[in-house]
Model the fold of this input.
Amino acid sequence: MKMLLESPEQKVHLNITANQCPGCPSNLAARLVMQVTFETLKNQRPIIFGQGCGIGRDFLQRSGLGTHDSGIAAMKTAMAIRGIDRPVVVIDGDGQIDMGLADMATAFQLGYQYVHVVCDNQAHAASGSHTTGATDILARTSVRSAGEPRPRKLFPLMLMFSGAAYVATASVSHPQDLERKLKNAFTRMPAFIQVLTPCNPSWGYDDDKGTLVARLAVECGMWPLYEWKDRVFGRQNVPRKATVKDYVSLQRRYAHLDEEGIQVLERYVGGLDDLMAKLEQGFGEP
Ligand code: SF4
Done:
């Protein structure tokens, strides 16, 4: 198998420019993941595998839509047969959460040793920005002009109870937190990290505002940062500096919201806060 992302100079993370939109947050996050992976694990010759809009597009090796995790199971098995022991990191988008749900949950349940990073832009951005299971409540997509009344899947929590040794959420707006979590994941596999990476055209903000929008999501509580590590759950303490209104006002995907709609989102954030508190109470530091 050809590995386009390997080079003798180990500058592989520079190879993924593939005509992404200017300021694409998924591209930024993917570069950071690759840089941290290749710098941290350089003596173990890591392999990066996957694909997504903004994530190398067709420059990365991949197994097919929704099958990256079964591809990894096959790769790890083939490597084991040949006596090859190299770390593998998958990077893809939130479409994998829908299309690859069975593969991913089963690969984690079976204990395959790899790290899976999802750059979550809450849309099938490469094929018209329609809804995924990660699309936020009431966010407009190309096929839902008023948005969905349903909350997104909380996929890290699903994997937390499906054999993961490590799960976390992260955001492209908090690169040091993402780097720390990647390093935690490298020593606790199977591991899953879901990184919030807004999408310029799907979300409808100016193309220099991607990291600002992501930061507001964290600071208003729509995107809590948390991790499950060594069987302990913890939420990162981020000051609540922004309101839900601050967050939605920068995005055309929420332009249809009136005061009542914003209150729905505020209640949703309140529900997430309650859930995080209960998880910390039940699974936090003893
Ligand atoms: S459509 Fe979205 S995810 Fe795709 S390259 Fe543009 S900003 Fe990035």
In short: The first strand starts at residue 47 and ends at 51. Residues 205 and 267 are 24 Å apart (CA to CA).
